């Protein structure tokens, strides 16, 4: 960040009074520009005993499989964002059943809120960000072609929870996940 979004003057890094870290501060108007993590929302959507996967048409990780997920937009709840992403990526209408995972990935400045959801109809089709979409059996998950580590973590956890009706299941980064490569979740 080089220029103020309020007045277009140059920014400088400094620690504002009472803050514990440096921030971009406008040299003219003094506006403090806070840069915060992005929130990613998505849903593990099922139809009977199959789950919805999307093959990405966009970078990062084009051609790899994921769940419908992306960045939360201003003015929407996390649940609305997950529903929107399911529609945008797979033309899927869903019902959110509960939160299944919360992943904090500070290396890429993301917090991911991932839900368990049921498809309201079996009909799905690729949206503009997907090359194809499929309802796959658990035994047919393309583990070696998953787009992101967080998708793997989610699928592994969801497999453990199959058949349970917990209204809210929260999982944080699995032990041993370290700070290794994670290419994001959007």
Describe the protein in words.
With 186 residues, the protein is of the alpha+beta class. It folds into 2 domains: 35 residues, Ubiquitin Ligase Nedd4, Chain: W, CATH 2.20.70; 124 residues, Nucleoside Triphosphate Pyrophosphohydrolase. 14% of the residues lie in helices and 33% in strands. The chain contains 2 helices and 10 strands, in the order βββββββαβββα. Strands 4, 5, 6, 7, 8, 9 and 10 form a 7-stranded mixed beta sheet that branches. β4 and β5 form a beta hairpin. The protein is elongated and about 60 Å long. The chain starts with 10 loop residues before the first strand and ends in a 25-residue tail after the last helix.
End-to-end separation: 22 Å
| CATH third-tier fold name of the largest domain | Nucleoside Triphosphate Pyrophosphohydrolase
* CATH architecture descriptor text of the largest domain: Alpha-Beta Complex
Q: Uncertain segments of ≥5 residues (pLDDT<50)?
A: 179-186
Strand content: 25-35%
* Largest beta-sheet characterization: 7 strands, mixed
Number of domains: 2
Helix/strand order: EEEEEEEHEEEH
Tally of alpha and pi helices: 2
Oligomer: single chain
Number of strands: 10
Q: What is the CATH class designation of the largest domain? A: Alpha Beta
């Amino acid at each position: 960040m080089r220029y103020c979004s309020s007045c277009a003057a140059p920014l400088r890094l400094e620690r504002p009074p009472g803050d514990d870290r440096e921030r971009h501060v406008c040299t003219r108007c003094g506006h403090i520009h806070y840069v915060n993590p992005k929130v990613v929302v998505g849903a593990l959507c099922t139809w009977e005993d199959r789950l919805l996967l999307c093959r990405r048409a966009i970078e990062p990780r084009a051609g790899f499989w994921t769940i419908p997920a992306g960045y939360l937009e201003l003015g929407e709840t996390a649940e609305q964002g997950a529903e929107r992403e399911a529609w945008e990526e797979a033309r899927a209408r869903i019902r959110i059943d509960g939160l299944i995972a919360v992943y904090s990935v500070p290396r890429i400045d993301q917090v991911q809120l991932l839900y368990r959801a049921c498809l309201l109809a079996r009909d799905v089709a690729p949206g503009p960000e997907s090359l194809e979409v499929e309802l796959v059996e658990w035994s047919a998950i393309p583990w070696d072609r998953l787009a992101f580590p967080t998708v793997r973590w989610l699928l592994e956890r969801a497999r453990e929870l199959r058949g349970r009706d917990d209204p809210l299941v929260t999982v944080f980064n699995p032990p041993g996940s370290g700070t290794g490569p994670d290419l994001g979740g959007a």
